[in-house]
Fold:
Amino acid sequence: MSSLALSQPPLSDTSVTEKMLLTAIGLGLLALSTVAFDADADRARLSFYVALALISGGTLAWAWLKFGRGDAGVKQDNLWLRSSTGRGAIAWITAVVLTGFYVVLYWYSSPDDQGNFGPFNQLVHALDPFSQWLRHKPADQWLLYGTFYTLAVLVMGGRALWKYRHSPYQCIRTVSVMFFQLGFAFLLPGLLLAFQKPEYYFSYFWPLKYDYLFPGTVSYLLKDGGPGLGVFMVFWGVVMSFIGTPILTYFYGKRWYCSWVCGCGGLAETAGDPYRHLSDKRRGAWRWEVRIIYPILVFIVLITALLWLAASGAAPSLQPVAEPLSKAYGFAIGSVFSGVVGVGFYPLLGNRVWCRFGCPMAAYLGLLQKHFSRFRITTNGAQCISCGNCSNVCEMGIDVKQYAQRGEPIIRASCVGCGMCSTACPRGVLNLENGPRKGRYQGSTLIHADSLRILS
Structure:
């Protein structure tokens, strides 16, 4: 038997109540799968809403049973022994199902002339009444995706609130991502469509929502949004991308967006929470992170500049080059990386694969945080007992324990300020601070010459 298995308590038996709740979730998934094959539209719609009720209600009740009744605190027992969270059979099946869902959604669910959405046709049309009520138009595959996405954030957000109820910071942060996903990324864009205005997501900015500053999108917003709302949408996008983001990051670090507002981060912090320990902490993974994420940022900056140069008339010959590049970026990064890999690989690579390796917004915010922000995580090395809880919960692949042992503040571009390292620490060694930039690279304890030599 391995030393890891010896150091962990045995897996607990599943209670009768838990089995009943898991049965309800399973029945919900079964009902949801039958919707796609049901030719009766009314019956399919009923099955769809029954399925969502069973899955959502069963998951919330199960989360209360697991986390809401016992002692509060971060519990990391048996994470690597469970098949679902230790890259076992259940994790692989989950990854295949999630990946398959994204593949079908992106490339096999576009409507034909008769409004047929392929394999998801009945699932999409089951949302027609809701779509007519909210958006005054029939449902499409993106409303189906948005509904699933938002429910995942809300339901698993409820789980997170029970699990981390002892931490005011985690509770407020979780409520924040739930609010922005439901209000700004789901309901508000639908209401804009109801008023025959452009579907606009006020919580997404360039370079994450890269096309918002493309010439074609800007023209569309100004035309269809009108002289008032359209101008405000373009103004909001420009100001938040180039003025609001640097100012907020200066005071609060990238956490103001990645852990409090962003929908990608919201899904990672709620639905992806069971997989946060899977992030690779090795230095080789960090090297790949740097090699991939910053070229992606440079690529989207270059594409945006080329499109504007072509649209301005200064270099019209660039149009045949810029357009294919933008489409290639949308396919490779906007679809494959952010969706298929970014979410589908949660159970295998952790919940922040996209944020860590592919998101240009994370790269942009990270550069600001690393070099200009007041934010840092301070450590007290004298109190560290080297338990490793902080490193285990870091979803961004930072070996936090190494900083804590040396009493060094954590100034890393990849850190999203989720605060889980501080929440998991049993000794109060780590603290999230927004102090003056002066001295933020200095540790709370003296670093000896040998340590400096090793760090260099």
